[in-house]
């Protein structure tokens, strides 16, 4: 896939055509840089065929090599694919080259909420409006088993209509990550917005820590400064852990009481999203955000399949196991990863069928969706695991351990993989 050069925006359609060779995969004309971080840059871009403005987040894979950020990126793709809500930034598609990953997302023109509140605190009615939209989005995420874990004004955008959009799900968790104790244990978040139970390192409820962060955000919008702040990070953590904050005198007594419920250091007593929606301060002038989720879903009818409007996820689900090694950055010598629309059960079942008629391999089942293929003479091992990517897609990961290229090719590439591809093709035929 081509490396992409920075291309200035143009309003001329004829000029657009001449730039198509330099455009992102011939689809998006990249424009000005909107922001950048240690591992990614975000550009304004234009869909060449429709003229639609989009935001493209470009992640440099070389910069994240050797870190655990690739797993965060894969999870972010999975999560954003699940979420279709008016107050959540939409992910349109994901593209990849050998060195970069491209998230093509909804362009939110108004920028970060942080930039707006940095100019001065908001009045209580505007705080309430943004908070209502934030809770609508957060409650929706929780109902889909998604916990953001890094809610802050920098991750909240404002569109042309003055409506809030939640973005950046890179640190989000899903219910699959919950431990046997019913809690999450990964330490993450932004220091000033992190809940006290995360600091305690004993596990935490993802929904409850999101509510805490929402409380900090509401305080910031109304006060114009952080409730817990100190130049010394450990002193700030002590304030968070003890819940030591003071509301400014201009806050209404109703808002002060509401914040005390949101910023309760005891997660068991902290107000829940359901209770928030019934609270008098929240309910004032509340307009329920009514939408039909199917309006946001990507259609899968035959007309859509045949058209040019399919995005990356649709193409994967109808292909015969499209190789995404360019996206997941696995070299051939270390095995491979590919995407399939088959269920984990059927994939493992097919592997077992192939191994039964093979006289050189024994199969050992591993926990969840995984197997280990071992040579009868112990000269090679191949590990295979299946990871759910979305409701309809899985990633199959294959890793040889101490095996020769010859045996890897003989067992995996020449026998098992062709059968899995055949299984996918049979699914395609049955669906047509």
UniProtKB/TrEMBL annotation:
<feature type="domain" description="NAF">
    <location>
        <begin position="305"/>
        <end position="329"/>
    </location>
</feature>
<feature type="binding site">
    <location>
        <position position="57"/>
    </location>
    <ligand>
        <name>ATP</name>
    </ligand>
</feature>
<comment type="similarity">
    <text>Belongs to the protein kinase superfamily. CAMK Ser/Thr protein kinase family. SNF1 subfamily.</text>
</comment>
<dbReference type="GO" id="GO:0106310">
    <property type="term" value="F:protein serine kinase activity"/>
</dbReference>
<feature type="domain" description="Protein kinase">
    <location>
        <begin position="28"/>
        <end position="282"/>
    </location>
</feature>
<dbReference type="Pfam" id="PF03822">
    <property type="entry name" value="NAF"/>
</dbReference>
<dbReference type="InterPro" id="IPR000719">
    <property type="entry name" value="Prot_kinase_dom"/>
</dbReference>
<protein>
    <recommendedName>
        <fullName>non-specific serine/threonine protein kinase</fullName>
        <ecNumber>2.7.11.1</ecNumber>
    </recommendedName>
</protein>
<dbReference type="GO" id="GO:0004674">
    <property type="term" value="F:protein serine/threonine kinase activity"/>
</dbReference>
<keyword id="KW-0808">Transferase</keyword>
<keyword id="KW-0723">Serine/threonine-protein kinase</keyword>
<keyword id="KW-0547">Nucleotide-binding</keyword>
<dbReference type="GO" id="GO:0005524">
    <property type="term" value="F:ATP binding"/>
</dbReference>
<dbReference type="InterPro" id="IPR004041">
    <property type="entry name" value="NAF_dom"/>
</dbReference>
<dbReference type="InterPro" id="IPR017441">
    <property type="entry name" value="Protein_kinase_ATP_BS"/>
</dbReference>
<keyword id="KW-0067">ATP-binding</keyword>
<dbReference type="Pfam" id="PF00069">
    <property type="entry name" value="Pkinase"/>
</dbReference>
<keyword id="KW-0464">Manganese</keyword>
<dbReference type="InterPro" id="IPR011009">
    <property type="entry name" value="Kinase-like_dom_sf"/>
</dbReference>
<keyword id="KW-0418">Kinase</keyword>
<dbReference type="InterPro" id="IPR018451">
    <property type="entry name" value="NAF/FISL_domain"/>
</dbReference>
<dbReference type="InterPro" id="IPR008271">
    <property type="entry name" value="Ser/Thr_kinase_AS"/>
</dbReference>
<dbReference type="GO" id="GO:0007165">
    <property type="term" value="P:signal transduction"/>
</dbReference>
């Amino acid at each position: 896939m081509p490396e992409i050069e920075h291309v200035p925006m143009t309003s001329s359609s004829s000029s657009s055509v001449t730039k198509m060779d330099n455009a992102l995969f011939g689809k998006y004309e990249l424009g000005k840089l909107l922001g950048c971080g240690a591992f990614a840059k975000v550009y304004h871009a234009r869909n060449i065929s429709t003229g639609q403005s989009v935001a493209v987040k470009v992640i440099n894979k070389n910069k994240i090599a050797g870190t655990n950020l690739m797993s965060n990126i894969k999870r972010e793709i999975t999560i954003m694919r699940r979420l279709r809500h008016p107050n959540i930034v939409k992910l349109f598609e994901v593209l990849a080259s050998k060195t970069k990953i491209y998230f093509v997302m909804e362009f939110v023109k108004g920028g970060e909420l942080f930039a707006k509140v940095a100019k001065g605190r908001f009045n209580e009615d505007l705080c309430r409006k943004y908070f209502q939209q934030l809770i609508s989005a957060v409650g929706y995420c929780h109902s889909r088993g998604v916990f953001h874990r890094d809610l802050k004004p920098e991750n909240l955008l404002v569109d042309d209509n003055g409506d809030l959009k939640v973005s950046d799900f890179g640190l989000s968790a899903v219910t699959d990550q919950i431990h046997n104790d019913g809690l999450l244990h990964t330490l993450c978040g932004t220091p000033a917005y992190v809940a006290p139970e995360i600091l305690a390192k004993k596990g935490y409820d993802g929904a409850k820590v999101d509510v805490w962060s929402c409380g900090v955000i509401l305080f910031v919008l109304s006060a114009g400064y952080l409730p817990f702040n100190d130049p010394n990070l450990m002193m700030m953590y002590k304030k968070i852990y003890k819940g030591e904050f003071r509301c400014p005198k201009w806050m209404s007594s109703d808002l002060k009481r509401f914040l005390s419920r949101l910023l309760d250091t005891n997660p068991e007593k902290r107000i829940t999203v359901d209770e928030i929606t019934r609270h008098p301060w929240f309910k004032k002038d509340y307009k329920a955000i009514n939408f039909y989720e199917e309006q946001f879903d990507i259609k899968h009818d035959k007309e859509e399949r045949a058209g040019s409007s399919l995005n990356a996820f649709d193409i994967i689900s109808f292909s015969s196991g499209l190789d995404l090694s360019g996206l997941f950055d696995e070299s051939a010598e270390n095995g491979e990863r590919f995407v399939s629309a088959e269920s984990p059960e059927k994939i493992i079942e097919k592997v077992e069928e192939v191994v039964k008629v093979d006289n050189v391999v024994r199969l050992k089942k591993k926990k969840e969706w995984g197997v280990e293929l071992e040579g009868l003479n112990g000269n090679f091992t191949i590990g295979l695991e299946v990871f759910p990517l979305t409701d309809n897609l899985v990633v199959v990961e294959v890793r040889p351990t101490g095996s020769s290229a010859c045996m890897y090719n003989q067992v995996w590439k020449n026998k098992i993989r062709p059968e899995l591809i055949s299984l996918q093709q049979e699914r395609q035929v049955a669906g047509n």
